[in-house]
What does this fold into?
Amino acid sequence: MAQVQGVLQPYVEVGAREELLDTLYAIGLLTAPIWIRLPKIGIKNKQVSWTERGIQPVRMGLVGASASATLWSSSTTVTIHVSNPTALKIGDILRFDLEASYTVGTERVRITGISTSILTVTRGAAGAAETTLASRTCVRVGSALLSGGDAFSANATLRTKPSTYTQTVENTILVAGDAESETVVGGNLVTQELAWGLKEHAADLERILIGGDAAAGSATTGRLTDGLLAVIASEIASASGNILNHITLGKFLQGIYDNGGSPNLLACGSTAWRCFGEMVGSNRAINKMNSVGTFGMRPSKCAMQFGDQLVVLDPQMTGMLSSSIFALDTTKIRVGMKRKTRVENLAKNGDYVKKQILTEFAVIVANEGAHGHMKGITKSA
It folds into this structure.
């Protein structure tokens, strides 16, 4: 049985296959830091669907005339325009805060109608009357059903069911037939090539997890699964002035938190990793919890405004992603395993050893808003 001496433990043999998931974990901690750390679940189908569990934001901007003019009148019923009407429903209670001066709106209004981005509201639900909406932010306070009243049928909506496909990833090892008898550091040539093949396999899994884009495939093309760049849409931020500091990072994490996420894993490209280390070294607002005194190559745990964060350097985040940070809530993203990582002994017709490393998986994101992507980080402050 193949074994990489001094590096890998013996595999669990299953017929002609050898299970490698635990072995891949040992190799991939640095090579594939996100893929390795995400929870794994078993799946049976090549197309996977699930119920979206996102939380609608409670704040939204006013648009058009509503954002700049004095629209309130003595009329009891008025209309206003908002940027995200899908987050609201009939019967909701709203207020209008002046966030620039940290002023909470005094008047509460009740939504009685919704048409595209236009709300019809009844004034005077509670509080002192406002005189203007200019520069205000609309805040959903909650719903208020009349005691004994019927449910608002217009508010009943089915949750969306996102879906993706599994992707089969493979790396093939081919060495001369006498390689098993040739001793090298770490074993023989077969085990050495297998170790390198597993490292390449882990890197491929990580790149797909980050940059994949789902496709059904065909009789001549393989299926593709979604990656983080494809699924994260709600919380994408560009570092202001390309600068990373605890304030901009805190606001970024707050947006995720407001969507129902509790990010606990920050994966950094090399440039963002350097900037994060500089920020931690110069800022007392972030408490580094590692026992070592420097922010080195190994994963570091930091106590931040929205909980403890495991910060990792991801070598597969290259190019423009070297200046990015992915903030992930690992309770709301899974790797669905249809076929666990394994090595197959392939048929041969010559004097060589031929093995195939194979994994079939899908990325399952229960709430895309629970994760975020900050990009464009080139310096710290």
